């Protein structure tokens, strides 16, 4: 039996594959699907005791997430849904923090206008969560 994989899952797989080893995404060992819909992924980074999503009220989190989003753009991709739940932060003590971008169902190949839109969306989501 062959399982049909949705366009969103294909996009997710394509982006994770393109960005693996670039220190932008967590290491992905497997993506878990149910009837062609992504329901999760297996990553050793998710077991990390300090793993969390971005805190919208924390400007250091915002700056670190924007930096990794910009790195994604430099590698030729835009996220299209860059809100706080799509950034995984690993706190490794007071001086060490690692930020990853996750959830690429709506990602696209980057163009200058899409990059600008992606950054605007990030700023909008951050302001809505931090001040809204």
Automatic annotation (TrEMBL):
Record organism: Anthostomella pinea
InterPro entries in the record: Kinase-like_dom_sf
Name listed for the protein in its UniProt record: Uu.00g128840.m01.CDS01
SUPFAM superfamilies: Protein kinase-like (PK-like)
